[in-house]
Amino acid sequence: MNNLVIAVDGPAGAGKSTIAKIIAEKLNINYIDTGAMYRAITYKCLQNNININNEDEVIKIAKNTEIDFRDNNIYLDKRVLKEEIRTMEVSNNVSNVAKIKEVRYLMVDVQREIGTRNSVILDGRDIGSYVFPNADYKFFLVATPEERGNRRYKELINKGYEVNIDEIINDIVKRDEIDSNREFAPLVKAEDAIEIDTTGKDINEVVESVISKINI
To answer: Would 180 be classed as within a structural domain?
Structure first.
């Protein structure tokens, strides 16, 4: 299992992170949440009152930021980040940061470097299509916007946030549009990826479906 690379792609709320984390534990490999990298940059921009639509300023922040994954935690400038990158404010802005080509170049370099250290499972929008086109296994998780919105709604409610489910679904649809239509490395299913529809399925069903396709 030397340098095994598993790519899990799909739109926002399809269950990528949850599934990838569990599979990482079951296979005893490292989990890299690539979306958290863009969330971390977005969080730093917001903390520094940077206009997300000012690409030059966002790129400047990204170039002067150290991001790493250790022990399945993301570190921003040597500080571990948790729930602060999961707020609605970050979620509402992250796709606009992630679509910036120069930012993606920087993050992809980090992802590829981490992927050379150990066996990894990574989730994102373009892992199998761009970051690791030669990944050993590629999966593409999908679900209806309503299903994805409901999952996100329950997650935020459980964390104590006051949110509106219609606004969450609209945000997911908007993120899908931005992610799918960005110029560089858009959200797309790799030709050799295995598609799994997670609508109406529980976590264990999806995990078993993925693991059944992996031969190690």
So the answer is: yes
